[in-house]
Amino acid sequence: MTGSDGPHRESGSDFRPAGPASERAREEEERAVEQALALVGGSDRTGGSGGRPNRSQDHRGDQDPRGHQDSRGHHDSRGHQGPRDEDPHPGPSSDGAPYNDRDDAPRDGRTTAATANTTTNAASTTPAPSSEQPLLPDRSSPKDPAKPPSPPPPWDRARAIAARAGRGGPTPTIRLPLDRALGHVLAEALGALTDLPSFDTSAMDGWAVAGPGPWAFETGAGLLAGRAPAAALPDGTAVRIATGARVPPDTTAVIRSEHAHVDEARGLLHARRSVVTGQDIRARGQECRSGEQLIPAGTVVTPAVLGLAAAAGYDALPVVPRPRVDILVLGDELLNAGLPHDGLIRDALGPMLGPWLRALGAEVSGPRRLGDDAGALRDALASSDADLIVTTGGTAAGPVDHVHPVLDALGAELLVDGVAVRPGHPMVLARLSPDGPYVVGLPGNPLAAVSGLLTLAEPLLAGIAGRPAQDPYRALVHAEVHGHPHDTRLVPVVHRPGRAGGRDHVAPLRYNGPAMLRGVAGADGLAVVPPGGVRSGTEVEILDLPWAPATPWTEGCFT
Is the pLDDT of residue 94 over 90? Predict the structure, then answer.
């Protein structure tokens, strides 16, 4: 790599020295990078709550030594949706061809200051062909000394930062009636308000008997559920009883109807099997005692939780409000309907993000389409009363990528500015103010946006909603999965049952480029592939997709 956050050039890449001057510049660059790394080696490089990164010193949209623009992961450098960042290797294999940096190019267009200076010098001495695009504007401040930006955090650290940010504030509590609490998270532990059952009841239709048999009985309807308590049962007598009916005091056992023989002529009841004291009686407090904890705080309210709460005497539940999310879709090139044409493409993220975020337990407003309008973006961010604002596209360094400049202008605190993950590395997590909403800036390419959702939005929302962290889930992967040389890769996979007693496993899917949704549309989850890749038979962490276990009664998956 070049510098702490510069582009990674593989052998055979299109980099060519521009002569002796370029060689000297490269040597100076390497010395500058080594000095910069020595200075920041022990510091927190995440851009977390310890302080905002100084983005005014980033050099976005620099050119390579031949004068070409460096798009940094979006071949047109804008970070919007569509084929401008197509996977160069859709490939016939399950995981495509070996990973190529061009598929999601490095670091959101950021280079070290030394790289930017070298690039600028090389570009000034090497005339560029007239057909090439003009140099992008330099967003660095001429008054501030240039310094290398901190490298983006590893994928797992970025997720931890997002989860910690979501848990950072006080957890509000509201009380909702049972019919509105589904999918929310319990803000408090659910304790038993009474013994369950609250009295001894019959577990079967049959006969309540007292003492040894045979038992004399009286004809009649007997004891039914919901009726007033009966008088004590004398020894040697029996009475008919229905399931759920209160058992009379001094009852020895309940004999099921099919295990009893009735001698109508003599008025006696005989047992066909031996009778054990307490059989087929649900004793008071068998399930729980009053005051006992039934369910801990942080549990998602499912239909079964609603049933238990009702049985325990609850009419309403203390829950955490669902996080409120606004979605802002950026990009002038996006169509809302019809076929792509004349350089315009369909918006894939607007229809996808709302249902996905609802499946994560959020209340989501309809997507707002702002185009490439910095003023509209600023107004939308400043006026939102949501807990989280999700933007699509505009996170890179192109001439109409407005997310970073607008966040800077609003004084936002950058918690994560780029992540060492492919696809989706130019994702952003910020907070507009100490009591203001969070912003998750997603790359515009669809699978890269999915990566951003799972990396930043999901753990952030879980923290805001009070959900406990999920235990990592790992599975064997059956196929070699190519990795990025330095970054984590997220690859769509599908679960497969083991054969002949073998272990269940996952298999990687094709069409896993950053601009593709075909792979993830058929996936059960995403495999977390460490740098360098994994061999077949290796265990990898799996990120389950939220709708995999969804059932018809939900608007998403809450388990």
Answer: no
